[in-house]
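Morning F.,

Quick status update on the modeling queue. The single chain you submitted on Monday has been processed. Sequence for confirmation:
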Amino acid sequence: MKKYTKDHEWVTIEGLEATVGITEFAAKQLGDITYVELPKKDSDVIIGDVLGVIESVKAASDVYSPVSGAVKEVNETLEEDPGLVNRSPEKDGWICRLDGIDLTELDELLTEQQYAKLLKESSKK
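Structure tokens below.
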């Protein structure tokens, strides 16, 4: 199951583990990504907490946690190759994995169809 936030993060759920990253739309908006600040392993996060920062030639942007949980794993590849977020934002460019997540929080997130509608509406403005 994949869900989205209005801030352009995505989360995929497998059991009680969540993988988090930024959407393709967010990666395109940022432009060439030059640095990714990853969250600290074993830190606890609450929905809406800042997980890290993504810096690009255009701007720096916070990455927010779409769900609460504990940081189980971080994508260390991004330290050496931050551009992986540009090339594969919704697959290989993931930011971190959380465990012990609260599945009830998923109800507050957007489905793929709702996220697509959000993008369509924002492009009209």
